[in-house]
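step=encode ok
step=design start
structure_in=
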């Protein structure tokens, strides 16, 4: 159910936040380990690509063009990951299901509202409670331990960009690994890397395995996310096969609701789309 906007009582929310409530951060040990592991694997890929393949390369244009492309991809992937991790996904204000707030909704006769029994919040349409975040999340798609956060209305764009850029740098790394093997076989192994031949082979094979794993996972996730956005349906709604009780947007409007109006900023993790949410004074803290 959707409600008209009313200026409900607001307060500073520090739950799941750090630095006096300024930054959203889920303090879940499993999620933090997964996030750190993600950064470590990206750092490993950067090390192998730069130290084993590109810096020792005698081909000037090949070396610098690939260095620029790969490092731009790394920068955008990490930025997207951090934005997904430290952005409020659309958390409903804790304990806002008070008599005062319910009266301010101005409900018509016969209208009902739903209250989450776990966080004592007014539960808007399409919101779901996350057992890890311990909050109701608006348009919650799923909770992803790799970003240590829920993917919801306010950070789905960043998660999609994270999957996209990880997939691109994984494919790029695979291309560089195959090309490096070809060059090492064609020339002397000792001359194609500053590392010994056995060390070079081990480093390249591990990077190939990592890149293949990341590429397959992120491409599947990217396809799933884009399909859900295209159909104006979250992952949870698809899984539960919920009947749509909301007015579905057109496919283009659904895309714009996640990425904003069409522009090159769609691909930027530093540009936040303007999301218009009803009951904003009730749902979101200052």
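sequence_out=
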């Amino acid at each position: 159910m959707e409600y008209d906007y009313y200026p409900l009582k607001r307060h500073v929310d520090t739950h799941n936040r750090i630095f006096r409530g300024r930054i959203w951060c889920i303090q879940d040990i499993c999620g933090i380990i997964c996030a750190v592991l993600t950064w470590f694997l990206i750092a490993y890929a950067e090390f192998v690509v730069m130290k084993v393949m590109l810096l020792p390369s005698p081909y000037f244009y090949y070396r610098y063009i690939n260095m620029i492309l790969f490092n731009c991809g790394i920068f955008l992937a990490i930025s997207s990951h951090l934005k997904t991790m430290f952005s409020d996904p659309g958390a409903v204000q804790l304990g806002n299901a008070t008599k005062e707030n319910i009266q301010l909704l101005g409900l018509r006769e016969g209208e009902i509202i739903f209250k989450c029994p776990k966080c004592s919040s007014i539960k808007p349409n399409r919101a779901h409670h996350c057992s890890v975040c311990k909050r109701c999340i608006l348009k919650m798609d799923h909770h992803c331990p790799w970003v240590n956060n829920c993917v919801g209305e306010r950070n789905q764009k960043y998660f999609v960009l994270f999957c996209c850029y990880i997939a691109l740098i994984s494919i790029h790394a695979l291309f560089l690994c195959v090309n490096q093997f070809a060059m090492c076989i064609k020339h002397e192994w000792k001359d194609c890397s500053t590392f010994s031949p056995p060390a070079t082979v081990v480093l390249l094979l591990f990077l190939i395995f990592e890149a293949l794993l990341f590429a397959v996972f992120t491409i599947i996730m990217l396809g799933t996310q884009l399909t859900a956005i295209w159909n104006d349906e979250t992952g949870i709604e698809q899984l539960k096969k919920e009947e749509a009780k909301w007015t579905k947007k057109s496919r283009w409007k659904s895309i714009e609701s996640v990425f904003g109006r069409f522009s090159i900023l769609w691909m930027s993790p530093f540009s936040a789309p303007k999301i218009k949410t009803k009951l904003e004074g009730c749902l979101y803290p200052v």
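step=design ok
step=annotate ok -> The radius of gyration is 23 Å.
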